[in-house]
Amino acid sequence: xxxxxxxxxxxxxxxxxxxxxxxxxxxxxxxxxxxxxxxxxxxxxxxxxxxxxxxxxxxxxxxxxxxxxxxxxxxxxxxxxxxxxxxxxxxxxxxxxxxxxxxxxxxxxxxxxxxxxxxxxxxxxxxxxxxxxxxxxxxxxxxxxxxxxxxxxxxxxxxxxxxxxxxxxxxxxxxxxxxxxxxxxxxxxxxxxxxxxxxxxxxxxxxxxxxxxxxxxxxxxxxxxxxxxxxxxxxxxxxxxxxxxxxxxxxxxxxxxxxxxxxxxxxxxxxxxxxxxxxxxxxxxxxxxxxxxxxxxxxxxxxxxxxxxxxxxxxxxxxxxxxxxxx
Length: 327
Ligand code: ADP
Ligand code: MG
Prior knowledge:
The protein is built from eleven helices and 13 strands. By secondary structure, the protein is α/β, with parallel strands linked by helices. Strand 8 (206-211) and strand 9 form a beta hairpin. The longest helix has 18 residues, at 169-186. The protein is elongated and about 85 Å long. Magnesium ion is lined by residues 44-45, 161-162.
């Protein structure tokens, strides 16, 4: 298994001559929280169904915990907890009763079931709602209960399909942090799909960007950012104070440009909202700060500009879309 809990090789799913998942290669390591990020129709749910053995690949291979879900779906189901987009509960039963029902289905003895259900209800933060009928639960509470249900069988892997859909922003953050905390505490590998960037950015160790059935980029935020902006200039954002300097009718950015011109690797200064963006070929922070100060200006701060997942996703998303259709 070489440390990979999930391993997909050239995984492809076609519906007729429409390719929903196109030669997907992906490996997720034990204990990792992996975010499958992509717009609607990208093929996220189809991929998840193949991971669970709920739909058969057209070609390529899937291994989950070293097991092939195509030939051995039952073994995979024992190890993997799955939270679908729409979790179903008996709405006329309480949260506690619903979990007890599942616990008994999973062949836990009465005493064992009670202990485990109580502890999980506590862990997902539903103690106060345990005696309420789930028909009265909010979407966020249902997802928490779903998470508790998934954890009942002590899975090695949890797969969640759009777990945050329809939850308010604060609920989303809480739910995702809960997922990550539970995964860390129990060493569980997590794969979840989402089309919300911010959420994925906050909690995932690694992200795969999925567009039109293809994984167009994969890695942690730094790797993705580096890949996207390869060859683009370094941008250093400088907060400069010109008090006490006679600019002699030149604009501040021109004054800065003049002072920095002699530095090897310096490209240009562009004015920002209330700072200046200094473009250079490499990270010249040290020499730039020294030069500005020596020239008599005040330096309030100097930051290397980091790109957020938003920018990365949009760049890739546009790239993926413009690469032609798949058929
Ligand atoms: P996502 O979960 O990323 O929104 P899906 O995996 O649900 O995407 O769908 C990927 C594409 O495959 C979509 O264009 C969808 O319409 C198509 N698709 C999904 N399931 C089927 C099916 N059973 N038959 C035909 N097309 C399907
Ligand atoms: Mg989906």
